[in-house]
Amino acid sequence: MKKTTIIAIVGIILILGLWVYTFLSLQSQKEEIEYWQNKYNELKDSQRDKENSSFDENQQEENNQVTIPDEYDISSFTPIKAQDIAEISQNKKVVILIARSNCGWCRAYVPILKEAQAELDIPIYYINMLDIREIQKVNGEDEWVTIDQTAENLLRNMATNSSFQDFMKENYGKTPLTLVIENNTLIGGIAGWRESSEVVISTLNSFGIN
Fold this sequence. Notes:
- It contains 7 helices and 8 strands.
- By secondary structure, it is an alpha/beta fold.
- The strands form 2 sheets. It has a 6-stranded mixed β-sheet.
C-alpha cells in the first residue's frame, strides 16, 4: 500500500474520530442543558406555588386530614375593593378576608371563619384575590399577573403598627389572608388556614375583635 494512501486513510479516521467526538460532546452538553433547564423549571414552579400558598410545612402535612369543600359559600361576607378599606375602617376595627375560589385552603377556611363570624356576631369583609391577580400564559407558562395595580399597591403598602410591619411584605399574595384593620392601618392578621373557629376567635380576640 502506498504511503500516500496510508496517510489518507489515517487522515479520514482522524476526521471521523473528531466528528464523532464533537457530536457526542454536543449531545452531552444538550442533555446537561436540558437537565438544568428542567431543574430550573421545577424550582420556579415550586417557588410559584410557595408564593401563592400561605401554609407552613406542618399545615401541608395535615393536608390529607383536611376536608376541602366543593362549594365556596361567602354569602355571609361583604364584598369590597381594596380602595374601600380606608372608609370602612374609619374609627373602628374591621376584619377582612383576602381569598380566592380556586384555592383549596380558602374553601377549607371559609366555613371555619363563618363559624367565628357567627359566634362573634361581626361583619367580615371580603376581597377577591382573583380581581387583583389572575393566572395568564407568559412565555408559554402559567404565571400570576397583576390586573389591578392600584389595589395591589394599596394592600402591599398599607400602613401597619410596629408588630405587623413585615406582615404584608411576607404574606401578600398568599391565600387565605385575614386582616384586622383600624383607621386604614393593619393591626393584626392571620396568614393561612386555621383548624377551628375557636383558634380563629382566640386570635381575633387578641387583636381587639370581640
